[in-house]
Amino acid sequence: MTPPEAPRDTPPAVFSRPDATAPAPGLATLRKRADFLRAARARRQSAGSMMLQARQRRDGEAAGIRVGFTCSKKVGNAVARNRAKRRLREAARIVLPELGRDGWDYVLIGRRDATAARGFDDLLDDLRKALRRIHGTAP
């Protein structure tokens, strides 16, 4: 027996899933090692579940907000590091359009036993607090 055909008058199903690695609109991802190294020489702010590095770019460099993510092997195996980076990526997607500044590079560094285990709302609060301190808008 052959399966029945789909009705011809219905449009084909389109499955659309947002790209999990794409940052929020208005955010670009840091890819080059040199950009990470420049951010490492700039401002740093520790938060409970991450470390935030930030630098203001010079005139003539790329426009917009750029963000990078990293986790060392101290965080754990590849599965643990990728989970921590996914959480940081989502936190940046939510918080940076709100508190990030145009013309700045941000690098979020995951911490062992903290980034993956911390509650997501607390992770968001940590990033907000670190951004306010970096930009001098909080005590």
TrEMBL record:
Region Disordered, residue ranges: 1-25
Tree of life domain: Bacteria
GO MF annotation list: 3'-tRNA processing endoribonuclease activity; ribonuclease P activity; tRNA binding
Pfam families in UniProt: Ribonuclease_P
EC number: 3.1.26.5
Record-linked SUPFAM superfamilies: Ribosomal protein S5 domain 2-like
Gene3D superfamilies (UniProt xref): 3.30.230.10
GO biological process, one term: tRNA 5'-leader removal
Keywords: Endonuclease, Hydrolase, Nuclease, RNA-binding, tRNA processing
Gene Ontology CC annotation, any one: ribonuclease P complex
Catalytic activity entry: Endonucleolytic cleavage of RNA, removing 5'-extranucleotides from tRNA precursor
Keyword Transferase: no
Entry function: RNaseP catalyzes the removal of the 5'-leader sequence from pre-tRNA to produce the mature 5'-terminus. It can also cleave other RNA substrates such as 4.5S RNA. The protein component plays an auxiliary but essential role in vivo by binding to the 5'-leader sequence and broadening the substrate specificity of the ribozyme.
Subunit details: Consists of a catalytic RNA component (M1 or rnpB) and a protein subunit.
Family to which the UniProt record says this protein belongs: Belongs to the RnpA family.
Name of the protein this chain belongs to: Ribonuclease P protein component
Species name: Pukyongiella litopenaei
